[in-house]
């Protein structure tokens, strides 16, 4: 049976917005984050500290962190891929850093300009510095379910990367289906491979590219993951992965989990309001379904 509580990590302001053509200004992002907090979300990947030329939508990361509301119990995650990004994230006052290590050589080169081993070494450096500074540190293993350039990614490679990152201090590990090729048996396969070495808290980062995101999320829930990433409205993608589409949508996920008796701490009406806000900012309909179909049963 599923865990009774699963934490939803809201990645709309980061993974969601970063692949949108319409640039949302800093004030708009702050208002979006305020709406997400009002909906009960407490752990928010607010931005990424990457080169502004590579991801222009995140160029205001330092500014944004100065303007987000600081409330008890609300934690902001900054995504980083290298030491320079970590230094910026630390100075900007994030509560937690999420470091990406990619499970395929080609994608690792394209996404962050380093080999897999360099990625692990970078994680180890950042992890030590983050812990010294009193920040939480998590790692996301990108392309865990498959690579857009190399195809299948061996299970043992993912499990080995998890083991090395946990040995280097990861507080939590997220397995990312960056390009949305995963199916529920893949979730089983990856969780059992990781569990042979570790009982580290696990999180999944799922994209709904082939409409398997929610099936994968439920499988992960049944296997006892502590957290799931999602973006409100299901916005987003990945600028470096061809044809990647949005994350699983926070409202569709929360509705499903709550109907299954899993507590997410989210207020669905308010979450729909946050998605409507970002929909208006982006000027296009978001992929999430709950806003169109309506919450069942009605309050
Ligand atoms: Mg993603």
Which helices and strands, and how do they pair?
Layout: E1 7-10, H1 12-18, H2 26-38, E2 43-48, H3 61-67, E3 75-80, H4 83-92, E4 96-102, H5 105-112, H6 116-132, E5 136-142, H7 155-167, E6 172-177, H8 184-195, E7 202-206, H9 213-222, E8 227-230, H10 250-259, H11 268-282, H12 290-293
The structure holds magnesium ion.
Task: Give a description of the structure.
This protein is 42% helix and 15% strand. It is of the alpha/beta class. The chain has one domain (7-293): Aldolase class I (TIM Barrel, Alpha-Beta Barrel). Magnesium ion binds at residues 15, 178, 205, 207, 238, 247.
Give the tags.
TIM Barrel; eight-stranded parallel barrel; 299 residues; 12 helices; binds magnesium ion; globular; alpha/beta; single chain
Portion in beta strands: 15-25%
Q: For the record, what is the CATH homologous superfamily label?
A: Aldolase class I
Structural class: alpha/beta
The name of the CATH architecture is: Alpha-Beta Barrel
Helices, by number, come to 12
- Let me know the number of strands: 8
Mean pLDDT over the residues: 95
- Percent helix, as a range, is 40-55%
Provide the number of structural domains.
1
Write down the overall geometry. Answer: globular
Report the bound ligands by name, code or SMILES: magnesium ion
Terminus-to-terminus distance: 27 Å
Q: What is the C-level CATH assignment? A: Alpha Beta
H-E string: EHHEHEHEHHEHEHEHEHHH
Uncertain segments of ≥5 residues (pLDDT<50)? none
């Amino acid at each position: 049976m599923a865990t009774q509580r699963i934490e939803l990590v809201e990645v709309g302001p980061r993974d969601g917005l970063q692949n949108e053509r319409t640039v949302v200004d800093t004030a708009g992002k702050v208002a979006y984050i305020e709406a997400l907090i009002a909906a009960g979300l407490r752990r928010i990947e607010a931005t990424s500290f990457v080169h502004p030329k590579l991801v222009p939508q995140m160029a205001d990361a330092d500014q944004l962190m100065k303007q987000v509301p600081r409330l008890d119990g609300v934690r902001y995650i900054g995504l980083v891929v290298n030491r320079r990004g970590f230094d910026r994230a630390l100075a900007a006052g994030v509560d937690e850093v999420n470091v990406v290590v990619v499970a395929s050589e080609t994608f690792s080169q394209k996404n962050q300009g380093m080999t897999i081993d360099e990625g692990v070494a970078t994680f180890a450096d950042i992890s030590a510095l983050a812990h010294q500074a009193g920040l939480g540190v998590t790692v996301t293993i990108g392309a865990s379910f498959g690579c857009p350039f190399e195809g299948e990614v061996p299970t043992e490679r993912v499990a080995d990367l998890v083991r090395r990152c946990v040995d280097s201090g990861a507080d939590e590990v997220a397995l990312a289906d960056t390009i949305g090729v995963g199916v529920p048996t893949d979730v089983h396969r990856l969780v059992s491979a990781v569990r042979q070495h570790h009982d580290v808290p696990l999180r999944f980062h799922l994209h709904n590219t082939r409409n398997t995101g929610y099936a994968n999320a439920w499988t992960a829930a049944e296997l006892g993951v502590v957290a799931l990433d999602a973006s409100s409205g299901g916005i987003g993608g990945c600028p470096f992965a061809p044809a990647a589409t949005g994350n699983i949508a926070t409202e569709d996920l929360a509705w499903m989990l709550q109907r299954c008796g899993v507590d997410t701490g989210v207020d669905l009406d308010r979450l729909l309001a946050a998605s409507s806000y970002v929909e208006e900012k982006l000027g296009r309909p978001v992929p999430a379904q709950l806003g169109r179909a309506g919450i069942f049963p009605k309050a």
